[in-house]
Amino acid sequence: MALIDVIKYQSDDTQVVWKFPSQDLKLGTQLVVNTSQKAFFVKGGKLYDEFDPGTYTLKSANIPLLNKLINLPFGGDSPFQAEVWYVNLISKLDNKWGTPTSIQLEDPKYKVIVPVRAFGQFGMSIEDPRKFLETLVGNMTDFSTNKVVDYFKGKVISSLTSAISQKIVLEGISVLEMHALLDDLSAYCQERIKEKFSKYGIRIENFYIMSINVPEDDPSMIKLKEAKDLAAKVSITGKDIYHADRSYDVLDKAAQNEGGLGDTMGAGMGLGLGFGMGNQMGNMTSHMNTGQHEKHQHTGGTSSPPPPNSVQYFVLINNQQNGPHSIDSIKSLISQNQINRDTLVWREGMAEWGKITDQIDLKGLFGSVPPPPPTST
In the chain, where are the structural domains located? Predict the structure, then answer.
């Protein structure tokens, strides 16, 4: 059995932990611990004495915990067996990370789920060497930086997914805006991720999200951009004008359909749109005239009263669009049993067809129209 005279380890930034290859030691052996290192004596898988940077001549006095376990004699070159582990405390700053698969995120502004890939890097160092050895190393002979990164990759990605999702939801950040907020997102994620590493004695020096990517040709990305364009258009033009514009598009396409049915629908729907737009313009004019009337009253002038309400509705009769009809005309259709309480109606400003009894100005018609005469027997 060859007893070891000198124990030392020339570390580099690729190795986090290294185990001295021999356990055959003796009192009087020199232990060299370089800068940014820490050494531990291990026996039976349990950590005992630890050494900071410096050069030590082993004797029972400077390994009291191990000495208590194996009862070393005083003086002489008494042999004993123990493992010596070195922990490298140097910072490793260029550890790359990336999401192996897409993260499914729901855009908080436009409610579209998109697949997101993220990439970046982080720096790390061993903050608590004893905790690190006890929780991670086990019986391995070394523990490289790459092993640390691989071990924590799942925890990083899991924490990152949760952190990014919470950040964009709490602050209402669209996926389309994340590129402009990478520094803010990086700082937020670092705070979340460092808690995971701290449990193992590892300190995160920095954490960077370098890019967040969504494939431009992905259907969800196309849908997201369309939602953004739509929201911008509604914001700029106003909801009523936007719906009118959409009606123009739909009716124009219907009118261009080939065949008699297309011509009929095109003519009927086009007429209905004309009435609807006329009503909208009429309502706008009515508001303007009302304002002018009030102005004249205050200034002593005179003005004619505003025009009566001329709302026009389209109705579905036998699944066919019919109209437009005034409220009096609809009252007549009710009395003729052509429409009932379940009939669907639409007028300018409505986003979609609605039940006739859900319209404030129509639901009272059924109470004012007498029931049909009883049938003769």
Answer: 6-88, 92-220, 238-299, 313-368
- CA–CA gap between residue 72 and residue 41 (Å, rounded): 14
Amino acid 56: pLDDT: 96
What are the tens digits of pLDDT across the range 25-76? 999 999 999 999 999 999 988 999 999 999 999 998 899 999 999 888 766 6
Contact 214, 177 (CB under 8 A): no
The domain at 92-220 falls in which architecture?
A: 2-Layer Sandwich (3.30)
pLDDT band at 233; cut points 50, 70, 90 = low
Buried b (16+ CB within 10 A) or exposed e, 198-237: eebbbebeebbbeebebeeeeebbeebeebbeeeeeeeee
Q: Which stretches does DSSP call E strand in 75-145?
A: 79-81, 83-88, 92-98, 103-106, 113-126, 142-144
Q: What three-state secondary structure class fits 313?
A: strand
Return the DSSP state at 372.
P
Residue ranges of alpha helices (H) inside 238-372 are: 239-255, 260-299, 327-335, 365-368
Helix/strand number for the chain, H first, E second: 9, 18
CB 171 within 8 A of CB 180: no
